Amino acid sequence: MTDSYAVIGNPVEHSLSPEIHAEFARVTGQDISYGRILAPRDGFRDSVLRFRDEAGGKGLNVTLPFKHEAWRLAGTRSGFALAAGAVNTLVFQGDAIIGHNTDGIGLVRDLTRNLRVPLRGKRILLMGAGGASYGVVEPLLREQPESLVVANRTLEKAIALVGHFEKLQSYAAQGIAARPYGALAGVQFDIVINATSAGLENAMPPLPDGAFAPGALAYDMVYAKRTPFLKFAQERGARASDGLGMLVEQAAESFFIWRGVYPETRSAMALLRRRMKQ
Ligand code: ATR
Fold first, then answer.
1. Using CA positions, which residue lies closest to atom 6 of ligand 1?
2. Which of 179, 184, 189, 249 is 20 to 30 Å from the Cα of 43, by its Cα?
3. 82 and 114 assigned to the same domain
4. How many domains does the chain have?
5. What is the pTM of this model?
6. Is residue 219 within a helix (H) or strand (E), and if so which, with residue range?
7. Ligand 1 centroid to residue 101 C-alpha, Å
């Protein structure tokens, strides 16, 4: 029997997850269906339970604005989901709802495998202190960078984020620090990650000119367009990447959690690149 999965969000019609998972199912020969569920803003839980109990759903991907609510709904939170405070993958096992967060793994895989940028010993700047940043901090720290600086327009939020992750025992010794953008003048980074939503409004964080070390990578989690940040980085000699690879890699990790099979991601990536050019 075909197993059913879906992405749940509001809005959700823009989501590329159905195309990605259809491609994964094709390349792995897995018999699944994958749809989209538009949940009312105040009806996330009901929509999840209806999908599980009435439609026989096996699992869900969760997108904005429900990632924190999914974290609360999950009876068990596994791996990186625990500290991230956000869940993007739900698994239904009998009555149990298990929550995972694959966003950070997706980012790290895109950086290290697809873009071939190892993170160990690197100076990383993470811009933004919202949900997108919380989802990736722990997987980034696990790679043992030399330092992870979190910059945010509202400094208090960066301080709160750093305080939250400093409490995690295993990473306590690592150099994670909160800074306002103004304090970054004269400091260089090997990898600059834009986890702000600025690009969606054609804006960019106030990053000083000299932030990119020679050979630096600029990475924007936004994938639907070339953002002002990526343009700024390229003009200053940095290598630039959008977040399409992260999207595909986080989906691959979800697929693995559900199916026990790790899909090859290159064909899905190529498919989406072609689609975005249309
Ligand atoms: P998400 O869950 O996607 O991270 P969010 O919680 O609304 O969304 O956070 C958006 C992040 O982008 C915040 O860090 C925000 O900075 P503030 O905390 O100061 O609001 C950041 N952001 C959005 N627009 C920005 C801009 N034009 N310049 C700099 N930072 C911006």
1. 130
2. 249
3. no
4. 2
5. 0.95
6. strand 212-220
7. 20
58 is catalytic: no
pLDDT at 173 exceeding the cut of 80: no
Provide the pairing of β-strand 57-62 with 89-93: antiparallel
Please tell me if the CB atom of residue 129 comes closer than 6 angstroms to any atom of ligand 1. Answer: yes
Judge if 115 and 133 occupy the same domain.
Answer: yes
Q: Looking at 110-219, list the stretches that DSSP marks H as alpha helix, in order from N- to C-terminal side.
A: 131-142, 155-166
State the pLDDT confidence band at 168, using cuts at 50, 70 and 90.
confident
Q: Are residues 92 and 122 in the same domain?
A: no
Q: What are phi and psi of 242, to 5 degrees?
A: -85, -175
Pairing between strand 96-100 and 89-93? antiparallel
Domain with 209 in it:
104-242
Distance from the alpha carbon of residue 154 to the mean position of ligand 1, in angstroms:
9
Identify the CATH number of the domain in which residue 206 sits. 3.40.50.720
Closest CA to 39 of 29, 50, 28: 50
- Say whether both 179 and 222 belong to one domain: yes
Exactly one of 67, 122, 167, 225 is catalytic; name it.
67
Distance 263 CA to ligand 1 centre (A): 32
Is 132 touching ligand 1 by the criterion CB < 6 Å? yes
Nearest CA to ligand 1 atom 2: 131
Q: What is the pLDDT, as a whole number, of residue 275?
A: 86
Residue 88 CB–ligand 1 contact under 6 Å? no
The answer on 235 and 110 residing in a single domain is yes
Q: Which of 52-61, 119-128, 160-169, 199-208 has the lowest mean pLDDT?
A: 160-169
Based on the number of CB atoms within 10 Å of its own CB, is 90 exposed (0-12), middle (13-18) or buried (19 or more)?
buried
Q: Give yes or no: residues 88 and 159 share one domain.
A: no
Q: Is 203 in the pocket of ligand 1 (CB under 6 A)?
A: yes
Same domain, yes or no: 80 and 187: no
pLDDT, tens digit, for every residue of 52-66? 999 999 999 999 999
